[in-house]
Write a structure and sequence with these properties.
Helices cover 77% and strands 0% of the residues. The protein is mainly alpha-helical and 107 residues long.
Length: 107
């Protein structure tokens, strides 16, 4: 459904925004003496990128006949995973879950 694709785009944009602000975050973490957390931040950004891309792919799969349930499952799983980076400020995760529910309901 379109809702799932929009949710994936929101999660992807959030991951990109975090990546663009990452130099500032890393400087603040270093200043606070928490520089060891920088590597974890990069891992979370990569999880956000992968979640967003797979949510978009799952949303596209919902439109293919016979692939609705597989696409909805992908969107649902990666909407939950995207919560690690706040799921597009929670809007992306909520839209992803709603889009997955609509995908499961589609016949």
């Amino acid at each position: 459904m379109v809702v799932s694709v929009i949710a994936g785009a929101i999660v992807l944009i959030t991951a990109l925004a975090i990546l663009l602000l990452f130099p500032w975050f890393s400087a603040v973490l270093n200043w606070l003496g928490l520089g060891f957390l920088i590597g974890y931040g990069l891992i979370l950004v990569m999880i956000g990128f992968v979640s967003g891309i797979l949510m978009i792919i799952g949303g596209a799969l919902i439109y293919l006949p016979g692939k609705e349930r597989a696409g909805a499952a992908i969107v649902f799983i990666f909407s939950i995973v995207s919560l690690m980076i706040l799921g597009g400020f929670l809007v992306g995760a909520i839209l992803g879950i709603v889009g997955a529910a609509l995908g499961f309901a589609k016949k």
